[in-house]
Amino acid sequence: MPLRIAVIGVGHLGKHHARILASLPGVELVAVVDTNRARAEEIAAANGTRPMFDARDVLGSVDAVTVAVPTEIELSRCRFCAPGSPCWSRSRWRVRSRKRTR
Q1: Which end of the chain is less packed: N or C, by CB atoms within 10 Å?
Q2: Chain-centre distance of CA 22, in angstroms?
Q3: Which domain holds residue 82?
Q4: Which residues pair with 64 in a beta bridge?
């Protein structure tokens, strides 16, 4: 069974997260999420997945998410993850992989 992952934020760095994850064996890129609908649709089409426009929509359909949004809103995007779910963040000021416990 593949690891089901979504990418939240598909701007400059997130598009590379999506591309790399889509190419990995054992990984299913479930969705890319971005508030910029055109961008989400473009990156989803390029990587054979579906676009979503609200990060909450991936809850329950993924095993993990990677968050690649501007630093000032990144923590708020990580906080929605279900308790115990892996949430990878690109920020250097936080541990890159963490398990949310609350």
Answers
A1: C
A2: 12
A3: 3-97
A4: 5
For residue 68 the two structure tokens come to 């690649």
Q: pLDDT for 14-40, tens place per residue?
A: 999 999 999 999 999 999 999 999 999
**Domains of the chain: total:** 1
Does residue 92 sit within a domain? yes
What tokens were used for 64? 């993990």
102 domain-assigned: no
Q: What is the sign of the dihedral through the CA atoms of 34, 35, 38 and 39? A: negative
Mean pLDDT of 3-12: 91
List the one residue out of 40, 41, 44, 39 whose CA is nearest residue 29.
Answer: 44
Cα torsion for 5, 36, 70, 54, to the nearest 10°? -50
- Residue 27 structure tokens: 């990984």
In a domain, 13, yes or no: yes
The CATH number that applies at residue 52 is 3.40.50.720
